[in-house]
Amino acid sequence: MALNIETFSNVKGGNCFFKAIGHPLVTEQAHALLTRLASQGRVAVYDPLGMAEALAQFYDLSALDIGGVYVQRIEEIGSRILGRNAQPIAVLPDATAAVVFVVAFDAQRLIDQVRHLLPPHAQVVSLDVLRLPDAMLSNTRRYLDPLNFATNLALFRDADGRHTRVVSCNYWHGWGVQGTQIWLCLFDHAGAVLAQWQEALPDGNASLIIDSAAVRRRFNLGEFTGTLFIHAQHIGGHDVVKYALDTYGDAATELSCTHDANSWPSDLYAGLPAPCDNERVVLWIQNSHPIPIPAGGVGINKMGSDDIRVVNAVIPPFGTYELDIATLFPEARWPEQFEVQAGKYCVRPRYEVSVRGGRSRMAHVNVERVDLKSDPQLPKLGELVGKGYLLPAPILPIAQWHSLALPTPMTTCQQQLPLAVKVFDATGAEIITHSFGNLARHDSVALDINGLLVRAGKSLPSGYGHMELIYDFAAGKEADGWLHALFRYQQLSSGHI
């Protein structure tokens, strides 16, 4: 039941058509457009850029009396679009249509190219009626410029004595841009709009801080847990909204920080940990779109297992759903880990781990890549370049912290992971190497670095250092260069992780 939309390609980058038709300021206009088209008689759909199917993912076109679908590219003739065989635009004059619906933005040039083919007296309508105001755009000449849709979403909560704070800065100023603004829309858990406002950024490398407690006071709101939609306007050079999300509380038990959500919804996410015996793990599913996530639209499975257990609730447009992992997998325990079958319904979800009677912290799962394959050249390269690919992480002062590492498969091709960890002192001296062996995809093996040093009779003379996750080609040969892990740090004095 995954959405059939193009979001991000590692070749072409981000696709922003789905952002353009799914923007909170556009959805009401889109429904009005379709109602108007349905009332005007037979519709000929011209789909020159292949966007009609994506539009139909977000909006119900069944009320339209579609007489035919027409395409420009010869390769698309005969393909199924909106349940019909696509016809060449050259036969459009034979159509009986009251309206020609051009499924494109910046459509005037496309319309002019086929004006001689339009049926007599037919009205022409395009997606340009759904454009955001020019005042919100960074590039008014090209509507689907990624700079016009530098958007992101954040989990935003001010409830039960717990607060959140989005922190970013005007890094676009470094590209010589002035007048940058941030448009914000706050949704509650049911997807209802609680507030909309704009924040003007100073022309400089200034910070941006959006605090849930301040927003609650400003708009006289009650408690909320939902989504903050962020749209950066008048920007240049960089089309991604980066931020940190702090969580803090009235009590000291609430404290963590995680980075931005990654604004392109993905099919799969991984790196979701199971709870320890005294923990509760919640996955916050934030619907990124103006359509409901249907029951069964999102599922969870243990890494390496085909047993996918689905979320049977309907999650409303722009709604937020609290999934207690124990409701689907009551038997699962750390260091087991999960894969999220997200179906492109949500940006990278956050998860929250709460210790019974103790502290809580928040982190996020990562996009699991589906485009990589094992590279047989990597073991050979290892002979030439030493360690080759590596993933580093700190080892915090061992007198105060426990440092743990849990390798996490992060591509669908990773069926085996031949891995090792090298431990270094702060001086750069290598202290010890530990081989995980050739881990199967379903293996979840957490390594306690402190315990490893004790068992080996080793120490870090500096008291701290770093570790490097590397391939161990003596244990196996499958490798794609995409190393990931969960690194977990437990403060001995407080127990906080």
* Beta content: 35-45%
For the report, how would you describe the main beta sheet? 8 strands, antiparallel
How many beta-strand segments? 33
Helix/strand class: mainly beta
Instruction: State the end-to-end CA separation.
Output: 36 Å
Task: Please give the share of residues in helix.
Answer: 10-25%
Q: How many DSSP helices?
A: 8
Mean pLDDT figure: 95
Q: Roughly how many Å is the radius of gyration?
A: 26 Å
Global geometry: globular
Low-confidence stretches: none
Question: How would you describe this protein?
Answer:
By secondary structure, the chain is mainly beta. 11% of the residues lie in helices and 37% in strands. The protein contains eight helices and 33 strands. Strands 10, 11, 12, 13, 14, 15, 16 and 17 form an eight-stranded antiparallel β-sheet that branches. The chain is globular.
Describe, in short, the structure shown:
The protein is mostly beta strands and 497 residues long. The chain contains eight helices and 33 strands.
For this entry, give a set of tags:
33 strands; five-stranded parallel beta sheet
Outline the fold blueprint.
Elements lengths: L7 E2 L3 E2 L2 H6 L4 H12 L3 E5 L5 H7 L6 E7 L8 E2 L2 E2 L1 E2 L10 E4 L5 H6 L9 E4 L23 E10 L2 E8 L11 E7 L5 E8 L6 E5 H7 L5 E10 L10 E6 L5 E5 L8 E6 L5 E8 L12 E4 L6 E2 L9 E5 H4 L8 E5 L8 E6 L4 E5 L1 E2 L10 H8 L4 E6 L5 E7 L8 E10 L4 E11 L6 E2 H7 L9 E7 L13 E7 L6
Parallel strand pairs: 3-4, 3-8, 4-7, 8-9
Antiparallel strand pairs: 1-2, 5-6, 10-11, 10-15, 11-14, 11-16, 12-13, 12-15, 16-17, 18-23, 18-26, 19-22, 19-24, 20-21, 20-23, 24-25, 27-32, 28-31, 28-33, 29-30, 29-32
